[in-house]
Amino acid sequence: MTLKQKTVSGVIWSIIDSFASNGIQFIVGIILARILSPREFGLIGMLTIFIALSQSFIDSGFTNALIRKKNCTQTDYSTVFYFNFVVGIIFYFILFFFAGSISVFFNEPQLELLLQVLGLGLILNALGIIQRTILTKNINFKLQTRVSVVASTLSGIIAISMAYNGLGVWSLVALTLSRFGFTSIFLWMWAKWKPNLIFSIESFKDLFSFGNKLLISGLIDTAYRNIYYLIIGKYFSAVELGYYTRADQFQALPSKQLTGIFGRVSYPILSSIQDDVKKLRTAYKQIIKSTMFITFVLMLGMSAIAKSMIVTLIGEQWLPSVIYLQMLCFVGMFYPLHALNLNMLQVQGRSDLFLRLEIIKKVLSIPIIIIGILYGIKILILGMMINTIIAYFINSFWSGKFIGYSSFEQIKDIFPSFILAFTMALIVYIIGNVIDLPNILILVTQITVGAVSTIILAEIFKLNSYFTLKEIILNKLGI
After folding, report:
1. Hey, which bits of 77-148 come out as E strands?
2. For the chain, which residues score pLDDT lower than 50?
3. Residue 155 lies in a domain
């Protein structure tokens, strides 16, 4: 199979995986949002940063180190497996014993037991990290799709059943634990990899020399991305955090899933041609143009339909989420671009530079966070929008320097897609405000008009990234 064929196949199965499994989780989230209150989602949101930081420690950058290494051995995989598992247990007990202090910090006594139970997910998730890494390294997303879909479906059924039976916030805890548990079980059953009884200090040092900087970078980025949950939960309320959480989860569906789709496919692909700069630059340019065309259309389109979508899907009780979602869409549309530029630093083996850039960007964000605490959630999100633009220029300057693909060239390549998507979103937004129909009909009309106008505009202006994607889709359909 050629590089292009592997890339196309990987992208297609990665798309199916992300949108099937996350589509199921999205539907489950909608059903739960109709049963539960914003406060219950807010309580889980308060714990998000602690779980996310622990997950970063457990992986410690080893996943990317294994994917980048050209000839991994069973010793490498087994060594990292035991490290992940032991660190998972250690961090579970850390969270268990500090759960009381965390509940006092938020002045929410219920959080103590919630965190002590939810923390078990760290151990369950650690059991399947290596299997997922091997599948990703081999660009085998077909099996990952099967695992994700089955795990998401079963965990969703459990959570919805518990919510209907009045178990409230515990249904959200069960959703996370059961998904992690089922995912690890099915990976062990179907991925056909088992660890040997071996732990190599030499292998650990070799992988950690690359991964340790990614660990620190990951911790900084994870803390930054989740600090808003902590701030809103501490300085505002669980209800406000619930509104923000739902808005963030809506915008994350396209932005972070696209990042995952193209990121996990592009990283092993680009790593395999890391020594051929010309070939690397050509592949990288095409990935960025295709990714950002889809991202701009989905994110700006979601901002335009935010009100009708939220009211239709989860009800009028969530209306305060609308403005948060619209603003977060402008933050999220740059997220895939950030990730792809940082991916290039990892492909080049520059985890040291990756770390330095993360520190610089997060230091620059501190004044913005302080201003947000003083002036409210909307100002906080506005600061995120400003910071994400600054961060892009920092990332793209250094990643582009290695392969001769500057920030200006990137902007030039993606700007037509942005203009097209902005025009489409403006049309969709105006339609949503001038027609007088039930919200569900407004939503259907907006989505239909958005899809049709995107295709028409792309055809009229001969958008290169659109035709590339169109060709791939038609070829796969045999048309």
Report:
1. none
2. none
3. yes
